[in-house]
Amino acid sequence: MKRTLLPLNALRVYDAAARHLSFTKAADELAVTPAAVGQQIRALEDHLGTVLFRRTSKGLELTEEGHAGLDALRDGFLRFEESVAAMQAGQSVDRYAIAAPRGMLENWLAPRLAAFQAEQPGVRFQLRERERADFSEANLDLAIWLAEGPEDFPGEQISQAQWVRIAPVDAPHAAGRTVGWPGDGRDDEGGDGGAAGEPCISVGSAGQALASVVAGMGAARVPFALAGDAIAAGTVRVEDGPVEGRRAYWLVAPPPQWRQKKVRALVEYLKASI
Question: Region Disordered: which residues (predicted)?
Answer without folding.
Answer: 175-197
